[in-house]
């Protein structure tokens, strides 16, 4: 699946793993993907998230408050939790649905925003961002970035 990811989207996955490891978590979950999207900083998803007033520091603090901080992870490679795996698969679906041949940060964010029961969704709400508004803003930016033929 990762072969379809843009360089920025691949970077998000790497940064998500780094965030999980830094927080002492033993798997990558939706909250780590959210942090990875913000930390990447240059993709369409980061543009939307920062336009909603979110910062990496604030979101990281909310993640710590929500799920805690564990012990330093020792595993070289952290596995994806089921919800995070679903987000990555969903990003492919978001790309295919739009007829795009690559998976970008925008597709990851759209997939992340589908499930309102994840830790990432709860963190967004705790930070004052409405996941529905975020999804609409992302959709609008995707329409601008990928104009219809």
From TrEMBL:
Keywords: Repeat. The keyword Iron-sulfur does not apply. Residues 2-144 form the Clp R domain. The keyword Repeat applies. SUPFAM superfamilies: Double Clp-N motif. Gene3D superfamilies: Clp, N-terminal domain. Pfam families: Clp_N. This is Clp R domain-containing protein. It comes from Microbispora hainanensis. The lineage of its organism: Bacteria, Bacillati, Actinomycetota, Actinomycetes, Streptosporangiales.
């Amino acid at each position: 699946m990762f072969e379809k990811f843009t360089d920025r989207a691949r970077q998000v996955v790497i940064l998500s793993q780094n965030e999980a490891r830094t927080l002492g978590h033993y798997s990558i979950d939706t909250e780590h993907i959210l942090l990875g999207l913000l930390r990447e900083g240059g993709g369409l998803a980061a543009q939307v998230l920062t336009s909603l007033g979110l910062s990496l520091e604030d979101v990281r603090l909310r993640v710590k408050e929500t799920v805690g901080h564990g012990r330093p992870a020792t595993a070289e490679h952290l596995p994806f939790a089921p919800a995070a795996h679903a987000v990555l698969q969903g990003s492919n679906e978001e790309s295919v649905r739009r007829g795009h041949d690559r998976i970008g940060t925008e597709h990851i964010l759209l997939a992340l925003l589908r499930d309102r029961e994840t830790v990432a969704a709860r963190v967004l709400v705790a930070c004052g961002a409405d996941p529905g508004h975020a999804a609409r803003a992302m959709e609008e930016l995707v329409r601008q970035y990928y104009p219809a033929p």
